[in-house]
Amino acid sequence: xxTKGPLVSRRRFLQGAALSAATxxxxxxxxxxxxxxxxxxxAPLSRVPTICGGCGxxxxxxxxxxxxxxxxxxxxxxxxxxxxxxxxxxxxYIHDLYSPDRxxxxxxxxxxxxxxxxxxQAYKEISQKINLILMLNGPQSIFWINFPQPNHTYALRLMxxxxxxxxxxxxxxxxxxxxxxxxxxxxxxxxxxLANSRYIMIIGRNPAGGVNLxxxxxxxxxxxxxxxxxxxxxxxxxxxILADExxxxxxxxxxxxxxxxxxxxxxxxxxxxxxxxxxxxxxGELAKQAINYSPEWAENICEIPAPxxxxxxxxxxxxxxxxxxxxxxxxxxxxxxxxxxxTVRALAIANSLLGNINREGGLYFPPMPELGELxxxxxxxxxxxxxxxxxxxxxxxxxxxSYGDGIAHAIPxxxxxxxxxxxxxxxxxxxxTNPNPKRVMAGYKKLxxxxxxxxxxxxxxxxxxxxxxxxxxxxxxxxxxxRHTGKKCQITIQQQVVSPLFDTKPGTxxxxxxxxxxxxxxxxxxxxxEANRLRLKPLxxxxxxxxxxxxxxxxxxxxxxxxxxxxxxxxxxxxSATIEKLGYPPVPLxxxxxxxxxxxxxxxxxxxxxxxxxxxxAMTANQPYLMAxxxxxxxxxxLMNQARGEAxxxxxxxxxxxxxxxGEGKIRVKLTEGLHPSCVWLPSGYGIFSKHLKTAYDMGLxxxxxxxxxxxxxxxxxxxxxxxxxxxxx
Amino acid sequence: MARYGMIIDGSKCVGCYACRVACQNLNNLxxxxxxxxxxxxxxxKFPDFARVxxxxxxxxxxxxxxxxxxxxxxxxxxxxxxxLVEKKxxxxxxxxxxxxxxxxxxxxxxxxxxxxxxxxxxxxxGGKPACMTTCMTGVRIFxxxxxxxxxxxxxxxxxxxRLQQFKVTMNTQPRIFYRxx
Lengths: 730, 181
Known about the structure:
The complex is a heterodimer of chains A (730) and B (181). By secondary structure, chain A is an alpha/beta fold.
């Protein structure tokens, strides 16, 4: 931390205080920013580069520190991912460092009440219990689930060292359908070259609300150059504010729109003939199928007028290959519908017909930095002998599911079936972010041992047997990160900015400590610093250099032009023999959503959800600076189409009762002309029910309260928008 | 002497409120104290619908009503155009709040009145206002209107006709110019 300023006595005072009392409360001088600022007006200011912990984008930032207290953060101007910018959540989340709700020492639940326990004692008890459980039930009975951060590789290593295949990410509740669709069409997930595109179509992705700063900077630049922006979304989302056109598509029917686009591209001969001839397989089969999907057919399903579909397709084709349909994220097809996998296939195919694969202004595959390995110095564990119990990658179960991610929301089911007996939850809160919380709770409560690593007592932490407090992101060093790779390959690193306030440890350290106590220390005979040096070795960047600059450009720049893909044929698979062998349609076919609102019932709606730009799902709901925005602007409402609301006798601000198969709740309604009539829309991230999160507790509802436990039959994702609700005036 | 001003292009604002929190951090404000405010307006009927966010903050008027009503001289306009409150002179009488047509002043817990100062202390050290640098779509341009090389001066020279002031009929002569769509 070369750029850090001089240490002062207060810092030492704080360190001492943190060690002496596990229940130390934060002094008013730290909690009240104004009085702290006054007191420290003339204190020297230091600037430390690190990465933001406010969401999964891990933006490169500079943290400004005075007297060991964080003041504010700024974006790193060179970072591909955020281009010198910081979002609302990033600014707000720094204050969580001083949240009175933070966990201040390891905790053990005794008779339903948490009691402080030492790290050593906690590790000892946890390891004894796990070893006993694994002896009786086999190594596969333990799992680890996390929202993947750079250190997820060590968590995976820990599971493999123990002999368990059960490492999970949150993926099945987020993006696994999208990834599968891209993987089976072009081999892997591309990035969007928005900045150089002449025509950008975004379907159900909202980079202005589910904030991606780099993408927004690129869209702004492209717009300045005259690029056209079209947004397809049942809701007039925040990106639509910037768009030339908003097309309010009927929820769950994006596939019909895309099939009609493909139809027009082929029928009118607008596709890139050279690209299709040289770089794709199965055009004949695709053309044979696409003939069925005329724009007029699509209009009946998706409610976008046929002439609009034709016009937009022609406009895009005129700009090819500098025209793209955004690769998507969670939004419309990450894990939303029964037809999501087919939707992504159709979206990837429509892009391919525009000839934009690995082209400037289209979609591209960024070069990835080749990080070094820990072996041969540190041996790799042999790995588990059995398949994952969730059935990912298994024919007959979820063959298109992601084995690497697993199916997160299958964990409670596997626990109820006694297939999983104990586990770790790290940087994740399944009780709030998985569907059907009652079922999730039943599953997680059935575990013989649940250990949660978090900074606050989330819903999941609140039912754990042990809680291990992780240091806040500004308090810890972490693993080297490659998140910022774009056209220019970049690596970044998270590093300590202020010393820990409490008796907490970095996530990687907790993983290493656990391994050592669990008897698999031979695979973890390193510390974070050594691991980081080994990872950086082939890149020719020293750890010191990376820490000083926060970011380093490495490797080659991206090159324009199609290259052999990671698909079986090496080409774009318009027709996929792999998918056919598994018994699924090898070219995209129209598929209805699983459920649809009852047209004869004025109370029946589809429940959609989405992110607000100032919250990261349930993670930041408890942040007072961010919740203040929600409250000040009355943004915790259920959105409903104006005419539908009036038909129900509703006015803005009325309390409504919403019910689904699995849940019910009350919320205020806001009527808008900016929403498709067939759905209601709920902002995600609210509905916190952990009493330990005092700012957010009992504020609003979560869509997960209404979503039944569903598994898409091929990918296994949650199908998060397959919810029908009844809405009535309360 | 610089003559500071700002251009706000409301058509680019997506309502993320990053300006609000970036400003709160730079100015050490508490969570409910904000100098930046967004006004959301909806137009049209489904499916022909649009909405606009209008960022509002102190307009740094050249004819500031807050200054003329202030009984103690705490509300003042600097030579560079920045309107600010000298908190040691402020008695918290709230006349300025009543006089300001833009509703952009807050009452601090300590009893005095505060508002956007274009982050002037920070600007004097070479920085830019926090609301401008954090914005992902580049809604704001801040700078010296008298410096012909500055982005804001060039923009004013080029697009004067597309710039308008907020509540211009009140003759407050704001230093913030809004770009017409």
